[in-house]
């Protein structure tokens, strides 16, 4: 009996150290930033059993086997279609503003196309009005409607969107709906799922979440994009999930979620359509390449001086593109930089870029929620406050709800709006989208919205912040240790 127990003991001991050695090797071989690698190694060695469990859930970027195979080749296939889009030379902007030029050059060389002109771009800052405009456009659709959202929560005005979509499908409009399986779990458990399928809508649960898959892929890689495409001409994108703001997360007692969306008419819809096409193929295996812009679009009288670019991230898309774009944007600022984000857990490079901007004389403001839906992220964010304040960055804490909008404005000329949070998950893991607009008129509109956010916020006082308790600082350091893993 003693021999048997000793064999079991030695077997478990050997298995444990083989796991530790294997994970250590994979951490060292994977080219991560040093802080992230060190966080993983310390977690595994200091709290090994918990660390090993966390690694298997969150340590590597897994997709399903079929999805990974498609993702590995999806962008090269897309480039073939982009070459056809390039033949529509009239839609491309040849020159950008000085502040936007570096970012648009980066996008051109890494994604294959220049910024696109002749778009009518509208900023929408009221969720209820945005939904009403979307419902109108859905009813007016003539050919096709494609949607992707992280969260669709039934109830209220979200049901009105569902009814409009069902009506469009029943009158012959080709409707496709892709929703993240984890974020939209309430939708898939509701009657709307089967009602939509019976109406002829293709409904897909992206990145299906189940306990049987937890060792096959990372469960926290999510489809976080928010996109609506109508007739290959009208596009919506931004931070808004398909939820009624009066009903969403009322039990959290943090007020309504405040979002920004962009509605665009014009040829940029074709470029955004290719992103949707890639997502659809990765999830279903079916190819649905969008149509090229038609001649009527090429001849429209929309603003030909502005330029719009779309940046996508996630498995299969150009690696580190979002991170590079954010760094390029911040370093392009000469006078003013305003950022809004609900989750502020930047990479070390982004943190230094923001601090450097302030130290070289740029007026830098960051607007974040005062109250938060995530305790982990709230405390992790606090770690960065001291360094930002010391560099001269103004930190505003929004008091009228959860500020969920993700926006960057540089010198009231270059605007970035999308689904990307300033945290590790958005930068490195999720399927995300950001729209880049080089247009002073649009920049002025975004500035007005951001300025209203500032008026509804309280400025974090550097002296008061420095007087926080010793135990608070210790707690912040603990979350700082975990921040690369969030």
From TrEMBL:
Keyword Cell cycle attached: no
Active site per UniProt: 224, 226, 231, 404, 406, 411
GO molecular function: cardiolipin synthase activity
Top-level class of the enzyme under EC nomenclature: transferase
Bilayer topology term: Multi-pass membrane protein
Any Pfam family hit: PLDc_2
Major localisation: membrane
EC numbers for this chain: 2.7.8.-
Compartments, record wording: Cell membrane
PLD phosphodiesterase domain residues: 219-246, 399-426
SUPFAM superfamilies the UniProt entry points to: Phospholipase D/nuclease
Family according to the record: Belongs to the phospholipase D family. Cardiolipin synthase subfamily. ClsA sub-subfamily.
Name assigned to this protein: Cardiolipin synthase A
The organism of origin for this protein: Buchnera aphidicola (Macrosiphoniella sanborni)
Gene that specifies this protein: cls
